Structure formats: C-alpha cells, structure tokens
C-alpha cells in the first residue's frame, strides 16, 4: 500500500480525541499509573466501572520497574500471590511465603492486563488540581506534563469523576493540593491533615497500608504509598504485595459504593 503522512496524522488525532472525549466523565479517575493505580484500574474495569488512569510520565509502572535498588526483581508475600496468578505474572517461590517475579514482566503484564480489562490510560498528563462541589470531590484538573515542565502559562482542562483515587505514591500529590486549596477542609485522619510517611518497617508498613486504604474526604480515596503517607505509617521498601492489595481494596470499596 502507498503511505500518506496526512492520513497517519489524522488517524492519530481522531482516534486520540475519540478516546479522550469518551473519558471526560468517569466513575473513577485514578491519579498515577504506578502499582496501586494499575491494580485499582484493572479491578474496576473488570467490574464494569468506567475508570481511567492519568499518569504524568511517559511510561506507567511507577516504582515497579526498578525492583529494589535497580535489581529488577520484585518480592511479593503470600497474601498477594493470588494477584500475581490472576494477572498471569510468573512468580517463583523463594522462602517461607516469599515469592519473586521479574520486575519488567510484572510491570508490563500488569499494565497490559489493566488495559485489556478496559481501563484507559492517559500518559504525559499531570494532575494539578481537583474539582470540588458542595464538600465533595467532583473530578480532576489536568494539564500536559510538558506544559507544566516548561512553566508555560496555559490553562488546564477537566475530567468529571464520581470518585478520585490518589495513587501518586510517596508524593501524596492530590491530597496535598486538595488541602492547600480547600482550607479549612480536613481529612479522615487523626489530625485532619497528612500524617506523614515514617521510616522503614516492612511488616507493619505493608499491613497498615492496606488497612489505611480508604476514602479520606467524600469522593477522594487514597491507595498505595499515598495511603501510607496520608494516614501515617512505616514505609515498606521493595516488597510489592501491599501496593497491589491496596489497589485491589480501593477498587472493591469504590465498586460497592457505586452500587448504592
Ligand atoms: O510510585 P508508584 O509506583 O506508587 P504506588 O502505587 O507504589 C509504590 C511503589 O512503587 C514503591 C514502594 C512500595 O513497594 O515504595 O515505591 O504507591 O506510582 C506513582 C505514580 O504516580 C505518578 C508517578 O509518575 C508514578 O508513576 N504521579 C505522581 N504525581 C502525579 C502522577 C500527578 N500529579 N499526576 C499524574 N501522575
């Protein structure tokens, strides 16, 4: 066949715009395409919910690519092994309930399964704010990452969502922005504010991160390291079961809520 550059350009623009327009109104907007965000998106899409992930970087996967200190293997504990199996990620038993998996296979398979389940991923988009209506989160304010990096004076666009999950990891980005812009709003935490991440203690950190995965303000949820940092517990380091279980828990809780 002959190739026409303009047809190629038109195909990209039209198909992207179709996808983008179709995702302006969502059941769930997930901020951050790292481990917890991808698992949450995967599970929500499996349950038939309209969910999309907004990731500011070129690639999704967050902290999973690099394993521990760039040794590209991840460790997952027994409690989350069912998720590796369900996703089709090859794992190997290591010792008494610990499993290892290749970090690249884990990341690419998770992203692929999330997309195949039906979640849409928009990369290169920075979430810079939320929309709030009558004491409830109403959606996201988004801008191209490149615009943000260049410091250009360009106004953003918006996504309406019934629920927003902050899966931005250690940065706790959406929660921070929300608190800064909506004083005197407070979160469902001990102080009403961000409790802060503590030093490393894998066992407690993993369990608490899953326990703390919750709605901290009407319509605003925390999962993954954002739950760790918002409700305040120990970091867990290079073990990924808690992140995966946290994403799954957020999806299940929101799905239940959407049924009401
Ligand atoms: O860091 P990340 O994977 O978060 P997570 O799901 O998992 C944490 C683990 O990777 C690891 C760990 C435990 O094993 O300690 O660090 O909690 O993914 C966070 C994603 O959010 C994106 C960021 O680029 C990354 O891919 N992100 C952060 N801020 C924004 C954002 C933002 N404002 N807008 C869009 N994406």
Automatic annotation (TrEMBL):
Keywords: Iron, Metal-binding, NAD, Thiamine biosynthesis, Transferase. Its cofactor is Fe(2+). One of its GO terms (molecular function) is iron ion binding. One of its GO terms (biological process) is thiamine biosynthetic process. InterPro entries: FAD/NAD-bd_sf, Thi4_fam, Thi4_prok. The keyword Ribonucleoprotein does not apply. It holds the Pfam family Thi4. Fe cation binds at residues 155, 170. It catalyses: hydrogen sulfide + glycine + NAD(+) = ADP-5-ethyl-4-methylthiazole-2-carboxylate + nicotinamide + 3 H2O + H(+). Its EC number is 2.4.2.59. Glycine binds at residue 235. The keyword Amino-acid biosynthesis does not apply. NAD(+) binds at residues 36, 55-56, 63, 127, 153-155, 225. Pathway: Cofactor biosynthesis; thiamine diphosphate biosynthesis. It comes from the Bacteria. Belongs to the THI4 family. Homooctamer; tetramer of dimers. NCBIfam families: sulfide-dependent adenosine diphosphate thiazole synthase. Involved in the biosynthesis of the thiazole moiety of thiamine. Catalyzes the conversion of NAD and glycine to adenosine diphosphate 5-(2-hydroxyethyl)-4-methylthiazole-2-carboxylate (ADT), an adenylated thiazole intermediate, using free sulfide as a source of sulfur. This is Thiamine thiazole synthase. The gene is thi4.
């Amino acid at each position: 066949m002959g190739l026409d550059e303009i047809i190629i350009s038109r195909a990209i623009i039209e198909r992207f715009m179709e996808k983008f327009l179709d995702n302006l109104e969502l059941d769930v907007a997930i901020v951050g395409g790292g481990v917890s965000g991808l698992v949450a998106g995967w599970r929500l899409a499996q349950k038939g919910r309209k969910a999309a992930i907004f990731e500011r970087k070129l690639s999704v996967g967050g902290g999973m690519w690099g394993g521990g200190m760039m040794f590209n293997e991840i460790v997952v504990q027994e409690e989350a092994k069912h998720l590796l199996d369900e996703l089709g990620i090859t794992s190997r038993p290591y010792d008494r309930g610990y499993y290892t998996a290749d970090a690249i296979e884990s990341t690419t398979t998770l992203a692929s399964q999330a997309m195949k389940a039906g979640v849409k991923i928009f990369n290169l988009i920075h979430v810079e704010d939320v929309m709030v209506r009558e004491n409830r989160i109403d959606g996201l304010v988004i801008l191209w990452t490149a615009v943000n990096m260049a410091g250009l004076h360009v106004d953003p666009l918006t996504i309406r969502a019934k629920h927003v999950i902050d899966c931005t990891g250690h940065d706790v980005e959406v929660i921070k922005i929300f608190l800064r812009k909506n004083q005197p709003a407070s979160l469902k935490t001990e102080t009403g504010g961000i409790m802060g991440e503590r030093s490393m203690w894998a066992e407690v950190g993993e369990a608490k991160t899953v326990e703390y995965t919750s709605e901290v303000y009407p319509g605003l949820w925390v999962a993954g390291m954002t739950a760790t940092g918002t409700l305040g517990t120990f970091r867990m380091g290079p073990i990924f079961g808690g992140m995966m279980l946290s994403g799954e828990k957020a999806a299940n809780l929101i799905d239940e809520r959407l049924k009401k």
